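Record type: monomer structure entry
Structure origin: computed from sequence
Chain ID: A
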Amino acid sequence: MNKREYSNYDMHYSRAGNKLIPLNKMQRNPDKYVLKRPWFPKDKSASILDFGCATGEQLAELFVCGFENLTGVDLVDKSCQHARVKLADRAEIICADGVEWLEKNDAKYDLIITNDIIEHFAPGKEVNRFLAAIRKSLNLYARFTIRTPNMASIVAGYGRYIDVTHATGYTPISLVQLLEKEGFEDFQFVPDFWDIKALWRFYVPWKNTGIKIILNHILHRLFYMLAKQYIAYHIYNSNIEMSCKAK
């Protein structure tokens, strides 16, 4: 990656609506900030790498979940500074090109998280090198997770072009095609409806009922039906979230 392209990325990150939440605020109300994902290891001492950790928001959520062995790597100096201030000694923050760092590093991880990362690598040699570095750094049975804008969504254009450093976009089926070719298997997508029950609270019954998700699903199914377009995975959220492991 060209570091110059990301020189003002912390400003863009903020302008795009990402908020920096103090760690002590997360700890006071963990249910609000803890991300529950099906691929999180049961072992709280599992080694976890956040590739492209930005300002450390995901790492802070992992710490609130109780995970102890956390590492983040990011290319942007100012983002790394924010992450170090936020997390202090709770996670190791490395400021470097993540691919180059993994290629030179013999460490193995039980989970590697890449949120909003894969779309920054150009198709072909660049993304292949990224995936090879990830595969090399996974422990046996470890999982690799991806979050990326969903090109099967009606709002795909916004996710694809919100950032000039985005080099490509994926639908769920093209993402599987790429990952299979690069030596990954056991693809597990987070479905649109997976966390509705977990988020609903009896004392705020009007929230998290899933109405927006249901309407979004119906609208997309109607559009695809009218277009007579087959879709392999019925995921219509603005982002794809999935995990896999190396073969």
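Annotation 1: The two ends are 27 Å apart (CA to CA).
Annotation 2: The chain has eleven helices and seven strands.
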